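agent> Task received from the user: take the single chain below, predict its 3D structure, and emit C-alpha cells. No templates, no multimer pairing.
agent> Plan: (1) validate residues, (2) run structure prediction, (3) serialize to C-alpha cells, (4) report one or two observations.
agent> Step 1 OK, no nonstandard residues flagged.
tool_call: predict_structure(input=
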Amino acid sequence: MHPSRLALTLLLVGGYASAQAPATPKPAADKVLTTTQVLERQLANFEGEFVPAAEAMPAGRFGFAPTNGEFKDVKTFAEQVRHVASANFMFAAGIAGEKAPADLGGENGPEALKTKPEIIKYLKDSFTYAHKAFGGITEANATASVPAPWGQGSVTRLGLATLTVAHGFDHYGQMAVYLRMNGIIPPASRK
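)
tool_result: status=success, residues=191
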C-alpha cells in the first residue's frame, strides 16, 4: 500500500475507534452556570480590565484628551472614567430598584471629583454597588420589566446588566487609545 494511503487509513480507523469509545463523564466543574454567575463573571471581567486601565494613567495626565484628528469635543480621560462609574451606579440602581447611592453628576459624572484618587474611589465604589445589584438577578426576575433608570420606558434587569458591561467596554476601548497616545500599554494588553 502507498505510504499516503496507509496514513489516511490509519487516521480514519483511529478516528472511528475514538468515536466509538464511551464518552468520558464531564467533571463537576462543567456544570451549567446560573444567570447570576454568568453576569457576575462578565462584570468581574469588565472590572478587571477597566479599573487597572484607569489606574495606569498618571494623575498628571487624567485631563488628557486627544486633539489631533477627529477628536473634537471628546471626553477627557477623567471624564471617561467618571462617566462609566456614574453609568455603573445608574444601571445598577435600576437593577436593584433603588435610588443610586452616589451622585451621578451630568454626562461626565460628578464634576466635583477632580483628583485621580477621588475618581478611582468613585469608580471602585460603582463596581462594588454593581456587584451587589447583579447578585440580585435571578432566573425568575432577570427578564421582568423594571423602570428604565434614565426615566423613560422600561427595561429588564438582564438588559441593564448587559448594558453595563457593553457600555463600559466601549469606553474602555477609548481609554486604551488614550493610554497608548501617552506611551502607556494598557494593563490587559501586557499579559
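agent> Step 4: summary for the user.
The chain has one domain: 31-189.
agent> Done.
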